């Protein structure tokens, strides 16, 4: 990548600016370009993960709520039992290759959220589910998975995996994601910047595990 070109992290933040200007298509294109550039920075054809040294400082992510005008579809989604988490993540402007796991995971998540804009409740969420899963895999394979600064991103991923799975009728995957979210809430240290209203949002959604169990019993064949 040309030294004068924006970094993947800078492209991510530029895409978020486009999103807040209502330029959804342009934002999607730039998120995709940022993902491609993370591969170029690493010099591999396929994405590979880097284990972050324990001495490396943790870059800080900042969750920002989508503007109201981009949530005109929310009334349709609200009829889904599990509401989507509507924050996207701003990444640090200047990060090294050792931080690329976290940046890439954030970009995949942001692209999935952006791709959901304008969808109706009957649409398939297969692509979004795959993007969320890729983001989770990157964090699982990196040294950031247990870092408190990533807790909000992990919770957002669990919630939106549950939401996309539920919309596509994958009850077992929905339940597994909600259980993981509850585990994170109850056992993992959180970054001080996490807002209490976000914590309450996630806790309320974990209560829907009982709804998943009821759906499973209805859908299961009689013995």
UniProtKB/TrEMBL annotation:
The molecule here is called Uncharacterized protein
Q: Which organism is it from?
A: Fistulifera solaris
Q: What is the lineage of its organism?
A: Eukaryota, Sar, Stramenopiles, Ochrophyta, Bacillariophyta
Q: Which Pfam families match?
A: TPR_10
């Amino acid at each position: 990548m040309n030294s004068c070109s924006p970094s993947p992290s800078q492209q991510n933040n530029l895409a978020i600016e486009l999103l807040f200007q209502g330029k959804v298509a342009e934002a999607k294109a730039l998120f995709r370009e940022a993902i491609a550039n993370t591969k170029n920075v690493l010099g591999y054809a396929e994405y590979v993960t880097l284990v972050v040294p324990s001495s490396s400082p943790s870059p800080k992510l900042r969750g920002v709520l989508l503007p109201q005008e981009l949530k005109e579809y929310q009334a349709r989604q609200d009829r889904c039992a599990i509401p989507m988490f509507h924050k996207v993540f701003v990444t640090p402007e200047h990060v090294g290759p050792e931080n690329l796991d976290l940046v890439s995971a954030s970009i995949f998540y942001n692209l999935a959220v952006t791709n959901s804009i304008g969808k109706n409740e009957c649409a398939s969420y297969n692509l979004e589910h795959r993007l969320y899963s890729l983001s989770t895999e990157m964090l699982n394979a990196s040294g950031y998975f247990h870092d408190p600064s990533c807790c909000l991103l992990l919770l957002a991923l669990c919630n939106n995996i549950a939401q996309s799975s539920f919309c596509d009728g994958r009850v077992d995957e929905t339940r597994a994601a909600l259980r993981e979210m509850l585990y994170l809430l109850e056992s993992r240290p959180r970054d001080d910047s996490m807002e209490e209203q976000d914590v309450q949002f996630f806790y309320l959604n974990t209560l829907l595990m009982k709804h998943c169990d009821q759906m499973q019993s209805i859908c299961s064949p009689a013995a």
